[in-house]
Amino acid sequence: GLVNTREMFKKAINGGYAIPAFNFNNMEQLQAIIKAAADLKSPVILQVSKGARNYANPTLLRYMSQGAVEYAKELGVKHPEIVIHLDHGDSFETCKSCIDAGFSSVMIDGSSLPYDENVALTKKVVEYAHQFDVTVEGELGVLAGVEDDVVAAESHYTKPEEVIDFVTKTGVDSLAISIGTSHGAYKFTPEQCTRDPKTGRLVPPPLAFDVLDAIMEKLPGFPIVLHGSSSVPQEYVDMINKYGGKLPDAVGIPEEQLRKASKSAVCKINIDSDSRLAFTAAVRKVFAEHPAEFDPRKYCGPARDLMTELYKHKIKEVLGSDNKL
Ligand code: G3H
Ligand code: 13P
Ligand code: ZN
Description:
This protein is α/β, with parallel strands linked by helices. It has a single domain, classed as Aldolase class I (TIM Barrel), CATH 3.20.20.70. It has 13 helices and ten strands. Zinc ion binds next to loops.
């Protein structure tokens, strides 16, 4: 069946790799995630946001996730390690509803609340979740928004001096931190980047590894989570733009930095946007090249294939979670 994150994170920290946390809203994404994880013998976290629940229907999502375990077995994995996790839970009620519906892990995101309120809300969720052996991810520090300038973004970094108090008071199983990542396909403005003189492409500023180090020093061996970790692969952006899309200057986190983070106590890396880009790039290509096509399988199929390739690349070449089952 589905598992929580406890053992998974312990092994990942000791083994110097990170567990992929991939968001999904639909069947093709789920198929691609499970196929990639099963073929490479990787544990995986299936992530569902509140928006995804509303889009896909909570009951359908629950049975799809349970079905994912059976599908992984059909693909030859004897003991799949699959977590179904609520991404960015915004209230006790949302978390409770997911726990009651069989989720094995939840995130309560109180990062935008005043510190004491974040502590109180997170603690309440932990107390409920742990009765059912459901693990809880909390968050300290605010991820930058596209509109934030560098100074604003840095002021939102997780404060290392708060993490011990937060983890002790709340009892969370893992902690999401802010060290310069952000959500979406526009993680940095062109002004925050330099340009590669050869390619003319934007080179983003590095993540704040000094802040990560300071956090890890305060919490030795404690599971750390990175949100907003899409790399925004240039090939997908180019493909989208080539086939009629318009994504100017989209930029993500260089994979080299995620590779480095994976080797540390960062044991969960969240990726959503890259999958959306792959899906959209593949669909646009089919539409542009075969305008008479109207069977969804003819464009969702190639989208699924490209996402499978993307997930495999992340698992094997970036997070290092292959051959861990
Ligand atoms: O953190 C946000 C995730 O990428 C989910 O996005 O709320 O649009 O489903 P969403
Ligand atoms: P990206 O937008 O970088 O894929 O981040 C996803 C995420 O953090 C989901 O919680
Ligand atoms: Zn996130």
